[in-house]
Amino acid sequence: MSATRAIEARDRTGDVASLFRLHAPDRRLATDGIRSRLPAGPAATLGERVATFFATPRSGPELLVGALPFDPHRDDALYQPERFSTPGTGSLPSSLGPLCAAAELPPAADYADAVARCVTMLRAASASAGDDALRKVVLARGLRVEGAAPIDPHVLAVKLGSDASVTTYVVPLPVAPGEAPAWLVGATPELLVSRRGRAVVSHPLAGSARRVGNEAEDRRRTDGLLASDKDLHEHRFVVEAILDGLAPLCSQLQAPPRPSLHATATMWHLATRITGTLKNADISSATLAGVLHPTPAVCGTPRLPALQAIRDLEPFDRGFYAGAVGWTDASGDGDWYVAIRCARVQGHAMHLFAGAGIVADSQPALEVDETAAKFMALRNALGIDEARAA
């Protein structure tokens, strides 16, 4: 039996605890089994740990797959699979089953209050001219959904994959002994970094508006987004942070002066495609991911004050939400995507996540609307209408 067919058979029998999927518009990767785990550690040491791993003679695929947590100081979860393949088109059940509960954390009113407190912090910080003054914070919300039966992460991924513009993923997550298997499942539009040889690409998104499907209204919204000082300001933070991270490592680095529009099925985003050429071919995609993560698109800026603000204002632990998912190989090539538009799936429950970038002139009601819009892809996949989840 081929690796692809073996994986599909495991999908159908439910033995999916170690299955990894990454379906990008230009690449599809599936792995099965766990041969060896990368010693866990923080993002700053990722490149060094990966280099040491591949320098040690071992059998099996010269490949690591997995996820980085949101907090760059916490342990990541990468492993060498038993085998990998380009996935086929094996059939899966089409239904996730009935969903019996949905609750927001925090509720919209509490999220609006957190945004207001964050704006107060940012306005106070704006009086400081120091480089460490807080300028942007990304605040997230969660949505808990419970099913009458265990939720199949691969069925959810297939449903999310109906949007051809995004990258869908299913990544096994570490769990405590005795706990049910858990996965991070999502459909992200955002490439953190890709490396092929010395060629590097990053495609950050920041600044968003809901896509409604009406041509005139969508044109009004995109025109407003492209002209919005608030959104352009927020986007510039992200682009500058990535350029600052890549500049010491690249001999050439290019980014257009203004963002363009990037569309998904439910959202418009401001996007900038950044390309570069590495000075040294020994700089791996793992090193690049460790340098860039987390960007201001999911954290804020400067990084350390923004991380502290998130700890103070968010009522839950993000875990691997807003981290990064991807792969790297022994040659240093790899792809890493920002882990947004996602859910943590375990047993009968899933926790969905969405966030919004807060700057000094943010309006709480508009940020509530933005996070609600970002839940749409997952809500649509689950068959949950907005009224039920409000």
Average pLDDT, to the nearest integer? 89
Terminal residue distance: 47 Å
The number of distinct structural domains comes to: 1
Question: What is the SS-derived class?
Answer: alpha+beta
CATH class: Alpha Beta
Give the helix tally.
11
Largest sheet: 10 strands, antiparallel
Sequence stretches where pLDDT stays below 50 over 5 or more residues: 1-14, 386-390
Rg calculated over all Cα atoms: 20 Å
Short summary of the structure?
This protein has 390 residues and is of the alpha+beta class. It has helices spanning 3-13, 46-55, 108-126, 153-160, 215-227, 229-246, 285-292, 303-313, 364-374, 376-382, 386-389; strands at residues 20-24, 27-32, 36-37, 63-68, 77-80, 83-85, 99-105, 136-147, 167-173, 182-188, 191-196, 199-203, 205-210, 250-254, 260-263, 267-271, 274-278, 300-301, 324-329, 334-338, 342-346, 349-358.
